Amino acid sequence: MSATGARRRVAMLVNPAAGGSRGTDLAATAARRLLARGAEVELIAAQDVGAARDQARRCVADGVDVLAVVGGDGMVHLALQALAAAGGAPGHGTPATAGTPALAVVPAGTGNDFARVLGIPRRDAEAAADLVLDGEERTLDLGRVTGDGAPPRWFGTVLTSGFDALVTDRANRMRRPRGRMRYNLAMVAELGLLRPLPFVLDVDGARHELEATLIAVGNTTTYGGGMRICPHAAPDDGRFAVTVVPAVGRAELLRVFPRVYRGTHTSHPGVRTFTGRRVRVETADMRAYADGEPVGALPLEAEAVSAAVRVLVPPR
Q1: pTM of the complete model
Q2: pLDDT, tens only, 139-149
Q3: Does residue 67 contact residue 103 with C-beta atoms inside 8 Å?
Q4: Where does residue 162 fall: left (phi above 0), alpha (psi -120 to 50 degrees), or beta otherwise?
Q5: Any alpha helices (H) in the chain, and if so which ranges?
């Protein structure tokens, strides 16, 4: 790709607040790298989510070769909405076409799980930028979420609901502290309120009524900054991996929780796993998050859509 890639048109969209306001500096570093190698780069700093969404759609409509995002999983999530819709008839889950821009990621967030699972450098903006020209194009699946009459939402990593959704809700309501510590404090607070949650889970038409702490629907293995909640997931097999963490007490949850980072929690006798193309999750008074972003109140249905986006990753 590098022989002709240096003439590629690249739109680089940055979240200035990503990584504790490091996003702008990392974007400048990445843009300089690509310009020095002869690429055509438009650097766009979006001031808020709405502006970033509009800019992503404009860049895709303009027919750039690559939409590069500088930020965390939230910025990737935003870019996926524009790219997946452009890949075919919006709302019908058709595969990405050759005319759709490829996605590149320069990680600048706190979790960076999309980049993590694809092997994109997370601490070297120049190395991540080089993938725009030297990377391998990999066609990946996405999850498509529908429910409650809202427009479809796309996700690249994991959709979750239950305990972690309650923690995220609480963290979003807190003003202090900033960063990961706010999430940790919200988790401690929600542990004090831990209770079994009655879910209805439908996987490819098979209905399961169960009590759980959380349910995760994985297009990829990892969320939350390295937690391998769905270790049996693969982003190119056309199926989701579903992990159900059982209803357990606080002491047991704290004992099992560290194993999530290694992906060994699935050996716990109460953890259940499933695979399927269509997953419906239902419980009362609960929201779901995907790529760390709110996607709506349950019930929701997620469909695994094959070949929905092209991503530039390190060559294999």
Answers
A1: 0.91
A2: 999 999 999 77
A3: yes
A4: left
A5: 2-5, 18-21, 23-36, 49-61, 73-86, 113-118, 125-134, 163-173, 180-191, 250-256
